[in-house]
Amino acid sequence: ATFLQELGDTYSGSGNAIVYRNANLKRMDYNYWSSPVSGQNLYNFSPGTPTNRFYIYNEPTDTFVATGLSAASTFTPGVGYAIRGKNSYATGTPTSETFVFNGVPNSGLITVNLKKSVGADKGYNLVGNPYPSNITFSSLYNYGNNRNAIFNRQWFWTNLNDVTTQQGSSYAGNNYATYVQGSGGVGPTYLSTSIEVPSLRPLAYTKVAQGFIVQAKYDNAPLQFNNNIRSSNTANSIFFNKNTNEDEGEPEDEPETLNRYWLKLISPQNIGNTILVAYNDFATNGYDEDYDAALLSVGNDSFYSSVGAHKLQIQSRTNPFSITDVVDLGIKCSVGGNYIIAIDGTDGVF
Q1: What is the dihedral of CA 306, 309, 315, 319, to 10 degrees?
Q2: What is the pLDDT of residue 137?
Q3: Which of 138, 169, 216, 248 could form a disulfide with 221 if both were Cys (CB 3.0 to 4.6 A apart)?
Q4: Pick the residue with more confidence: 120 or 116?
Q5: Largest CA distance in the chain
Q6: Is residue 348 within 8 Å of 260, Cβ to Cβ?
Q7: Which residues, 6+ apart, have CB-to-CB distance to 121 below 8 Å?
């Protein structure tokens, strides 16, 4: 269910709302949670998770910390929390459980002040959907002064199993799914024989209780949520925890038809890396900080399109598409053998 309130609506009910969210987690998996209600105690939300495994994101160090969290802590509206699976969960097979939020449903204007340290690679903040309804990322990005506060992209932690054949001493991993409003989404690195990456491509809407990462443009940038970013759409969205939940069904594509294509690189060990090239009305063929998304890390097997020195997971280019258009690609290979580059999806003119 989704509880929708529109701009100008106020909540005048009494008592608490109970909001349910299914998640599939192994013991050592983390999920990025955000509460749709106020007053929900943090530790009581996931009893069985060690109390030192409830985290907030520390922007200056790009690490997760438990600083300031205690048995009295409640979820802060609009803030995301990384919470590990319970000790009772198995280590190999995900456990499906229904998590419960209990409190007054969040509504109206909610502001989260984002942090950004010095440096182009800084400013990552863990936030989340603060409402008991889905939200539209395009509406969030375009609301108020949010365009000046954040870049036009969001990242979701996916909990895919570590792929040991890809890892080396310098491997930083690619467990995030990435979304750029107006262009689309790309899933994480995956083992091509066990899961199809389209099932983990972010779509237009962010689900109830979902935490995600955004990048601030300046320090103390106010990210504002309000009721007009809320949506009754429940089909064009995925809850990122451990693959897709059984109750989500097959994810549909985004509402509008876009000219775009996905390419995937498959290594000799069946490691899959996918990139997206999309033709966006607001983008150029150069680097667009609000419409291109670079790889968060370059692993031992990586695939990207390039604009200058930028290694892009999502590249947005001038719309409409021209048959003379040329897109530069790059790969990083850890072992010798046969690598495959293949079409992984098409939309619009493609």
Answers
A1: -90
A2: 96
A3: 216
A4: 116
A5: 65
A6: yes
A7: none
